[in-house]
Amino acid sequence: MTSGPSNIPHHQYHNGGRNRPWSAGSVSYRFCQLLGRPLQALRRRIPAPLVLLLTVVQCGWILFDRHVTSQIRFVPRRPYIPPTESSPLVPYYSGPQYDEKYTGPTRAFPSRPFPCESLSSESRFPNPAILLKSGFLCLMQPQVASTTLSSVASRMSRNVAQRTRPQAMTVNRTACTTWTASIKAKRLKGRIRERSFLWTMVREPVDRLMSKFFHIAVSIEGKEPTLEQFQAYVEANAYMEYASYFKTMSFRRYVNPDRTDLFPSIVREILDQYDFVGVLERWDESLATLQVLLGLETQDMLYIKSRTSTAKGGASFHPLEKYDPISRKTTKECIPLRKPWDEVVTLDWKKYLHRPFMYDEVFEADVLLYRAINASLDATIESLGRDKVQEAVRKLQRAQQKVDGQCASQAVFPCSAAGNLQETTDCFVNDVGCGSQCLDSLGKSLATNAEL
């Protein structure tokens, strides 16, 4: 059996089962145990020469698969250029082995009115089956500022309801119907496009995988942030991480990782299904573009950072629920978030990430989609008017400076600055929409401020 440069067997990436307790081998063994007697009776009726012939064919097929087809599969599609200390951590967007200019599918997202046909509570939503068909639908991706995105979406829907439906506002009906969750887009196939707005945001795939490792393995599981641990994490999760955006954002039931020729058509389908897709690395541009698309105001887009090590007001701790199987109770505690990985990433990490095997077996599909979304964001900005969007960016950045100076330290998060769990917060629900009162007060003053 051959393996790639990372010394990780190819089958661990694409079979999706051999390393699991319920692997195909164990299930087949139990199945054969149940059918042992019928199989033995059938075996007695098969001539011995035929059994020998089938065995030879099977052994020949195994040898051919391992020593011929696997060798073809492992031929890298891009040359390996060893990185240096000055090389970027992410090598998949420019350089002699990659295309300098993206020429794949793109889409300029059209302007739409904010969908506010019905109202719901900030903290309790109606039947999810209804939400999946209409309303403001935000599909969150793990480790893509999901909590902050939820806060932005909640604030947008509440402010729009207050302006457009003031006569219908009550204590329990305070926002346009909004839904945010981390699920696969397949559950949204029945949405009514005219009555809904589906959007999400993506993050550079390598950066996102690193963030997941440091958040899950280091912060939650308490593992050491070493290259060996990261390699083990990749080995255990590569099958799940391969084409992660394809699997969560596409309405298809299955994505064949070996049919790279179908990737451009899948990218086109994804772009056509969404009303907007932003880029985390272009956060201000993405929010400003979304604001212009929906015809919103700067105060609707304000937020307080959460679940980041640079946030103020106690958000450097993350509330985590843990289930105790002995007491059968769920408790919540605050765990410190991981430190930025810049402190531990060395040249060895870059050598591991720059190998062609990592691109072919882990990042290829998501890198293609990420480039397509970046190009689509540029196309959308051009269609709306670059000057108009840049003006919205400047206003949002100036407003956020005031938010960081006045509201960030006043917000009452579920976890205090010392890491203690706080029963009373000023959030909409859990750690979403914290500091809303300060943001409301500041937003009203900004709305009448001619300087912005």
Written overview of the protein:
With 452 residues, this protein is α/β, with parallel strands linked by helices. It has two domains: 11-73, no CATH class; 119-447. It is 45% helix and 9% strand. The protein contains 15 helices and eight strands. It has helices at 11-14, 24-34, 36-45, 48-73, 128-131, 146-164, 205-220, 227-241, 244-249, 263-273, 283-294, 347-354, 356-384, 386-406, 436-447; strands at 119-120, 135-139, 175-176, 178-181, 196-202, 276-279, 317-324, 329-336. Strands 4-2-5-6 form a four-stranded parallel β-sheet. Strand 7 and strand 8 (329-336) form a beta hairpin. Helix 10 (263-273) packs parallel to helix 13 (356-384) and helix 11 crosses helix 14 (386-406). The longest helix is centred in the last third of the chain and has 29 residues, at 356-384. The protein starts with 10 loop residues before the first helix and ends in a 5-residue tail after the last helix. Mean pLDDT is 79; it is low at 1-27 and 308-314.
Search tags:
452 residues, alpha/beta, 2 domains, 4-stranded parallel β-sheet, two-stranded antiparallel ribbon, globular, disordered N terminus
SSE diagram, text form:
Elements: H1 11-14, H2 24-34, H3 36-45, H4 48-73, E1 119-120, H5 128-131, E2 135-139, H6 146-164, E3 175-176, E4 178-181, E5 196-202, H7 205-220, H8 227-241, H9 244-249, H10 263-273, E6 276-279, H11 283-294, E7 317-324, E8 329-336, H12 347-354, H13 356-384, H14 386-406, H15 436-447
Parallel strand pairs: 2-4, 2-5, 5-6
Antiparallel strand pairs: 1-3, 7-8
Helix pairs in contact: 7-8, 10-13, 11-13, 11-14, 14-15
